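Thread: Modeling a multi-component assembly for a lab meeting

Hi all, long-time lurker, first post. My supervisor asked me to bring a structural picture of a complex we are working on to next week's group meeting, and I have zero experience with this. I have the sequence lines for every component (369 residues in total). Could someone generate the structure of the whole assembly? Inputs are pasted exactly as I received them:
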Amino acid sequence: EKGGYDYFMLKEIAEQPKAVADTLLGRIDAAGSLTLDEVRIGAAELRELDKVVIVACGTAFHAGLIAKYAIEHWTRLPCEVELASEFRYRDPILDPRSLVVAISQSGETMDTLMALRHAREQGSKVLAICNTNGSTIPRESDAVLYTHAGPEVAVASTKAFLTQLVACYLVALYLGQVRGTKWGDEIRAVIRDLSRISGAVERVLETMEPVRALARSLAGKKTVLFLGRHVGYPVALEGALKLKELAYMHAEGFAAGELKHGPIALIEEDLPVVVVVPSPRGRSVLHDKIVSNIQEIRARGARTIVIAEEGDDAVVPYADHLIRIPVTPTLLQPLVSTVPLQVFACELATARGNEVDQPRNLAKSVTVE
Ligand code: F6R
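Re: Modeling a multi-component assembly
Sure thing. I ran the full set together rather than chain by chain. Output:
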């Protein structure tokens, strides 16, 4: 049932191009518009919204953090992202003009369920993004957009995360489409790029051998840091979470712009630091800033592991290890930049003799608060 792979996690990582394609299937029409019939919240109501609030836990929360960049950019609606476990205990401001998006692979996470119940009590509409048909969270929501990742068996989430991202982009683009924004042309272009993105995920998977070799060489380390900016920041958090869960190593993700506000004090000789570099096109100012960050940490002895777009030559002089990812639109980059981090964590766990599919102390779905 592992389809020739040693672990479900490896199988599920390999299934990501298909999971992404399946999640897009039937949702983009021939004219390049989105048809999200499942979002049974009428266009008039969507036009009335004044904010979006995303609630989720763990990896799904990281998908939500990325969604915020997309939703705010394409719809100009304010978007808050909150850990479901914190949400309802702080008396959040919600009303019928707030759209609450609950993201959950299992559809059974108690914290997320309690958050959505609280939101509905305040009169907000809840849209679930979920991978499990008929589970509790979609049943208790006003509408559901299913991710079509197929069953995810490994405790650490991989393909579900990528499909959650796809679903979040679809929601963001759909809201943009329905509400109409000045980004109409960009939205059409991104829908086209999204429809081809599974090929890019496939290409990343074909180049992972050096990442595995690097991971094995770091098996004796205690700490790995992850840096990113913009949508690369949640990717850094996700890379760190995967490493904690699987390799039981101390791993932390930081926004690269925060380095000088504290984390740079952690840098010491030969400390592995993974840096997710934004595209040099588009928001190129961020790219240049992160290249300076890489220089700064390397000057202090860090071993830099740089994830950068094909053709981005500016990073080459400062990268001890360079991992290339395909060129994508800025906001879609997490779909390709997360993959090497999954492979990295999985291989490090194996090298350390850990149980990859069933890490200690963890459960696949957390049905208690
Ligand atoms: C990380 C992981 C967890 C889950 C979290 C939410 O690899 O698997 O952090 O993402 O427990 O679970 P769902 O998405 O089922 O609500």
